[in-house]
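Second attempt. The first submission of Carbon starvation protein A had a stray character pasted in from the spreadsheet, which I only caught after the job came back as garbage. Lesson logged: always re-copy from the clean sequence file. Corrected sequence (606 aa) follows.
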Amino acid sequence: MVQAITLVVLTLVSFTVAYLGYSRYLAQFVDLDDDRETPAHKYQDGQEYVPSKKPVLLGHHYSSIAGGAPIVGPITATVVWGWVPAFLWVAIGNPLFGSVHDFMALTSSMRHEGKSIGYIIGEYVGERGKDMILWFAFLTIILVVAVFGLVIAVVFNAYPQAATASLVYIVLALVFGVYLYQLDLPFLPGTMAFVAAVFAGVWIGVQYPLALVPGDYPAGTIVLLSGSPLPPVLGSVNIATWIPVVLVYGFIASVLPVWVLLQPRDFLTSSLLYAGVGGTLLAVIVGTLTGAGQQLTINVPAYAGFWGGALVETTLPLFPLLFVTIACGTISGFHSLVSSGTTAKQLDKETDARTIGYGGMLGEGLLATVAIVTVAVYAEVPTGGGIGLALPNFAAGGGLILNIGFGIPEAFAAPFMGLVLVSFLLTSTDTAVRLGRYMIEELVGTPETQVQEVAANRYVNASLQVLPAYILVASGRWADLWPLFGGANQTLAALALLVATIWLANWDDQKQLISTGAPMAFMFVITTTALLYLALYQNLYQKFFQGNWADGGSTVAMASAAVQIIIALVLVWLALSIAYMGINNIREARGTGAAVADGGEPADDD
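This time the job returned cleanly.
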């Protein structure tokens, strides 16, 4: 039997070699130079452009990119196709695809005033290309908010302890923001005190779980409401009630200045996340060395077949769905929005981009490895997939590993791992809404009409994301949302790599384009194939032509399938159109040479 320690060691070796070697090469390749002024200093405004210490910004960035997707996706893929395909895509694809993607998105934005990938492509291919990629990103953001809002609600329902602990650390983050930025008190003592308070919040959560409506919860759970008028989501009224609460939180957090909640909360929660990811990996090592390794063997098939194993309810082709099922952990387009949205506006020094961009994505790969290990060692793998599979196994499997490695009682360890999951999700959700605000603001530009002024209002454009997201998840159709989210997210990653390749080609006609161009081409083929499969085969052919409806073909189901087809086809059309314009620009830059300023910034025409 293969031991879990094997996966852990192979991942650590792969990622260490990549960081020490490939990331150093990339840093030299884009000429990181601390003598250059970063956008955070150049445009410092106390609202969005705020220079941040590297540990604080790494905490924000890592917390924002590492949402629930690198947990749900790898676990689902492991059960559907086996642990070998899922593990290889994470261990090899992350340093060569995802980490390159995140690093290049961050550095290209840093060299373009901290603007988004949409702004950057507009500088080279024109306003039409900019608007198309911004609309693509905005649609993806709504899917992100919808999916993460649903997952958070499910976690709060499954682990009411996590709901209480989350409330505690949000309050702590607000106080920590005042401590750091208003009172200007010492960073290190404050960090030690507030991090300790975060872990005390975990204990409070275990002692005083929180739920919104009555249900089957641990003893002592505090129930706030006697009932709810909302219809059940995934069979639970509590989940249905948590969804709007989470989305309202995302709305409020996204319109606050970054120093009030985003920066301090992400730094504090990162300590919790590091403990969860690092603690689980260390527990595997300790458990193996202390003789408990026989309890940490992999209990799922190495390879379950191209069409999936017996543990799933329907056949799913490994190509291309494996690569969009693991929507994060290897490569994620959402990260390009974080890197070129909030993170690039807070970089204190250019050289920080290597640790935060490349290293942060390797950290997410470790989270994906933890997710694979937790389900691989946990014997009770249920059928189905998606959210119903991922949540109990990540928490239960992680609790088992912490118990074996460190002797932590599973009654505490499992809720702790549930809190780890929700901590990632909360930070990603409100960061996504904030990024969606940036998308709309860039689309509007300088408001010239009353309508544009309304659209540019931060409260209005945040609402334009939260309300559609709620409509998407109100029915709880997770099986429809997840593959569409994955396909859109990974296509956005291909577009971000295209933007980086365009930037490099216009910077210097001698720059090599393989580091970004090769993963870009691979991802374009994978993701457009997946979206077309979902639209034309899974929905159009299987449902409308063959009549394979799970609920007998209700009006709601038909409307949902039709919307999915339209969204998928629109995304494919946008992606191919942008790719066509981008490739033409690269050919022109390589054929004629483009005038650019030092560091890759577009030169002034005069």
